[in-house]
Amino acid sequence: MKVTALAGGVGGAKLLVGLSGALDQNSHLTAIVNTGDDATIYGVHVSPDVDIVTYWLAGLADRERGWGLKDDTFRVVEGLRALGRDAWFQLGDRDFATCIHRTERMGAGDKLTAITADVARALGVTATVLPMSDDSVATLIDTADGRTLEFQDYFVKERQEPEVHAIRFSGIEEASPGPDVLRAIEEADKVFLCPSNPLVSIGPILGLSGVRDALKAHPDVTAISPIIEGAALKGPADKMLAAAGIEVSAYGVAELYADFLDRFVLDVRDESHRDRINGLGIEAIVLDTIMADEERSVLLARDLL
Ligand code: GDP
Ligand code: CA
Description:
The chain is built from 13 helices and 14 strands. The protein is of the alpha/beta class and 305 residues long. The chain binds guanosine-5'-diphosphate and calcium ion.
């Protein structure tokens, strides 16, 4: 069986780990990962969601923190601070190595897709990790107080505190999906949209030309709700949906994907929304979707498969 999943960071990584554990030897998992959060920081190309997914699938992630490698040290950023820099972006030393490697190879003309595949292989990941695009797409946040923030400035430096007025994806019109992205959707037996932020993690992937149409054409597309009891488990997804005028609920997320979705998985705590989601012409399934540990991720993935 071929399974392809669209993912952002932590919510995506948790489900990917489950799918990877639940699939047998003859199956293959492909992750299509958001790159709208990518940024140049301390001179290196940081690709937060691609690295989160790779580290989680490699079993090397710091699960508590969500991002970065477990047992990593932060000597380089400490060194930058000692030089008087406002080093607000935490980047572990081994994580830095990944970014240095990526930056140098990009400088030599290699594409993000090829570099990501090599990093995944080097770290022992058997799944295929596909950046959504080799072209630069930058998520920008227009704030209610009239500023435009690059995503990491909003997310990390300003701790998601500014009120969001609008979300934009700079470069999305000109960007193409990565070379294997559309095929990974078309050839999959099952496609999943991970419980990632619908607006800033799944949104950029859906915005690439051809992706939404490929999902529409596919007969077996399932999304898992990242919103449980009207809130995100972590991060600003709930605030962002509210700012965009979308109902902050499993129903609101299902509605966003209604044009291409076959099935929507909502959490047991939201069972009351089931009929409304069925009413969108989407089959609503109720499962326990909180992936507190790897075992829970695998159990959910088995149910999904
Ligand atoms: P980020 O890039 O690290 O912020 O991560 P994502 O975009 O992949 O995911 C953020 C979303 O994941 C939030 O809306 C969370 O509510 C959701 N999420 C995180 N863990 C879980 C989980 O165990 N179950 C479900 N259903 N959603 C989760
Ligand atoms: Ca992210």
